[in-house]
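User: Tripartite tricarboxylate transporter substrate binding protein BugD, Variovorax gossypii:
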Amino acid sequence: MKKLFALAAIAAAAVAAHAQDFPGGKPVTIVVPFAAGGPTDRVARDLAEALRKPLGGASVIIDNVPGAGSSIGAAKVARATPDGYTLLLNHIAMATVPSLVRNVPFKVETDFEYLGIVNDVPMTLISKPGIPASNYKELSGWIAANKGKINIGNAGVGSASHLCGLLYQSATKTEMTPVPYKGTAPAITDLIGGQIDLLCDQTTNTTPHIQAGKVKAFAVTTSKRLALPTLKDLPTLDEAGLKNFQVTIWHGLYAPKGTPAPVLKKLNDAVKVALKDPDFIHREELLGAVVATDGRIEPAGHKKFVIDEIAKWTPVIKAAGVYAD
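Assistant: Predicted structure for Tripartite tricarboxylate transporter substrate binding protein BugD:
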């Protein structure tokens, strides 16, 4: 028995020493469960840069592990050694993967430690140039008059644009033909060319085309109008008539379950410092993203938010009967 107590004391001392030393000059890896160059990858690289200083100058590197609606990369982090050196940056997929992917190899609620929401990326409802509508009311009338004939593009099953499209159809009680693409770029190309009718996608992808007048923009999906100069005149869907419709593509940071509490505190403290970094805020604004400042930057607030989002998206996805694998 004394030997067991001694071993436990040694183990506890080792954990405490590791936590005190963390990150100790070793690199911290942020796994991004999507391909390099996409919106989530860009957010991760911005965050990595902002985290270096509050982590004592440690290197923060990005590891892109795409596939299966983000579940491959997330599973890699769930299985990683819980020492703080392997983290996950994921978006709304953390709330939708349980419904979108069969046989998910982890449990979102129990296999991760929550380190804080990083940002929110608003969505915009846009259309091809030739639609005979100049505001959301006229767009709604056009949709009603063309029941069963309208298609709505997306960047693939489980993508932000796919999820927004599903929720929009559910909220408006309309059925549209989904047209999936292998990414946002080809979807927007066909929207500009008139091959598809509608798209609901992130400001990071749509703002340049709205600015150039290549597509028609009708509303944003936030609770308030955006302060961004290029989109400040766009109404919210709520004020345009579709009440309580809000969708943002948020990003959060996670560690494997069992990461020592002192290490988690250091990581969360570093995140909160990074979110106040003027350079990080500016880079996120250029992406059309809003840096988080509310209670979701705390681990408990982050976890509650994700659980609420799972409850929000599960019935919408199950009703649509779609899967990402």
